[in-house]
Amino acid sequence: MKKNIRKQVRIGIIGGAKPNPESRKTAYETGRLIAEKQAVLVCGGLSGVMEAAARGHKEAGGVSIGILPGSSTKDANPYIDIPIATGLGYTRNSLVVMNSDVLIAIDGHYGTLSEIAYGFIQDKKVIGLGTWDINGILKADSPEQAVELALKPFFPLVR
Amino acid sequence: MKKNIRKQVRIGIIGGAKPNPESRKTAYETGRLIAEKQAVLVCGGLSGVMEAAARGHKEAGGVSIGILPGSSTKDANPYIDIPIATGLGYTRNSLVVMNSDVLIAIDGHYGTLSEIAYGFIQDKKVIGLGTWDINGILKADSPEQAVELALKPFFPLVR
Amino acid sequence: MKKNIRKQVRIGIIGGAKPNPESRKTAYETGRLIAEKQAVLVCGGLSGVMEAAARGHKEAGGVSIGILPGSSTKDANPYIDIPIATGLGYTRNSLVVMNSDVLIAIDGHYGTLSEIAYGFIQDKKVIGLGTWDINGILKADSPEQAVELALKPFFPLVR
Amino acid sequence: MKKNIRKQVRIGIIGGAKPNPESRKTAYETGRLIAEKQAVLVCGGLSGVMEAAARGHKEAGGVSIGILPGSSTKDANPYIDIPIATGLGYTRNSLVVMNSDVLIAIDGHYGTLSEIAYGFIQDKKVIGLGTWDINGILKADSPEQAVELALKPFFPLVR
């Protein structure tokens, strides 16, 4: 794993801290699939969609990065492998996007909306799974389709 | 002016860098009205809606704050009185909102969408003039109505 | 004042939150002189050296900008005219420097040291009044000399 | 490795982008020793001391995190495993420190000085190898001693 981690595609999962049970399940499943595809999971590192996705991802053997609002790496949920403290508060949402090659939005409230907006500001592909209906989002019907959309016709990754 | 500037309500104008002529005129007019109401204008300090609003505001005698993405205060449009450099790039959008008591969104693209989202994240009132249709925005039909909505039943300002 | 505020030189005062009485007096006097010279005072907006300088500056009729660590403009000391919230915590120290044309360091601990370092990173002139002994600082013996050094052979200010 | 990466101590290496050959060698050796001790290397991700340390660390099998000033993960030197983009410019220096449990400063100029200052602001242990002479730094005479000081009587790490 280690040898390739920098070259792996990074899929950012953005979504609410208080999702309903179905969105939580969707996030878990999406995280799991991302690990199976050998991609890195990036998220905000906290609870809800972020935690469910990181848990699914970790259980399938993936390595995840959590870009935290607080100034302590301890704040990350237990499934995050690489917690990154920023001390920026919600202003860090822009950095979650900056560190993702492509985004999957699941459920979510205004925080997620800010990240969707940053996705387009930063010219990232944004895939939606039951989230805000914003012009430009590619809608997916399932975690499988979302991850497929995230990885297929992918730009040549140079990092 | 000086004696009271800290106590004045700060109205943030958010909007696109490349508005159509009508939105530019709306921004100009809104900026002018904000000055007439003795309120401070806060914006992103650059071109388009930001510049038109700052120009209207300055021509009516107001004092404006521009929260800039770059690291030089020189980047501000010529109508900004207090340019603030951040060096944060678009990540500074959150700070435009943080320094406003209430927001008026005019036209705008994804940058404006991120600021609308931060408005709700930070529990600010967000008024819309021909902008994104996001749940929670108070729609106004004219600059007059927008500024009236921004200032009427206003929370007691403590700063 | 208003007409010229953008064109006025901005002198940043950096220094500790808990100075001894003498440093507090030095800060007060320096703030006062900055106002007399028609320059804007920039500081971190909180207590100690920042508050004493802002108080002296305000009592002499100046306009001051406080770049705050927190996310609320209410955090500023009562003598700040233009509080700017950043929500960046101590990471905002870089922005205090970024918004100053020249710096005067008074007393101070590690926070001040970080601002002195940013002064040199950002190619600003740094004047010291009883502060860290760092290579590159221009030492002054009095507030008068510090403000004189800050303003004399000054670069042509374009903003 | 993966199982434990979050629990590993993170040692931040701070130092100049243009070190002399000896400091480069010191950085390389320090990076190597950090990997041998099963610790994660954190640095600014760019050239000079950062690159030499990351190279030594990678050659000894370590995993490194680079907290970058720019907005692209591509900016990292080739030995960084986990590049983190911030888009904050030099303001990111505070985040390099925030993501380290303990710091080793090697050589360095004003950027390094700002990171040493943030080390003390954030209550981190700061070890010096031929760097600034700042009160509070624990001086080491060799990479071996620096890494030993970094890891011995270490606080119980909870993350």
Report what the structure shows.
Four copies of one chain form a homotetramer. By secondary structure, chain A is α/β, with parallel strands linked by helices. Chain A has one domain: 3-Layer(aba) Sandwich (Rossmann fold), CATH 3.40.50. Helix content of chain A is 34%, strand content 19%. The first copy, chain A, contains five helices and seven strands. Chain A has helices at residues 21-36, 49-59, 93-98, 110-121, 143-151, and strands spanning 10-15, 40-43, 64-68, 82-85, 102-106, 125-129, 138-139. Chain A has a seven-stranded parallel beta sheet, sandwiched between helices. In chain A, helix 1 crosses helix 5. The longest helix of chain A is centred in the N-terminal third of the chain and has 16 residues, at 21-36. Chain A starts with 9 loop residues before the first strand and ends in an 8-residue tail after the last helix. The mean pLDDT of chain A is 95.
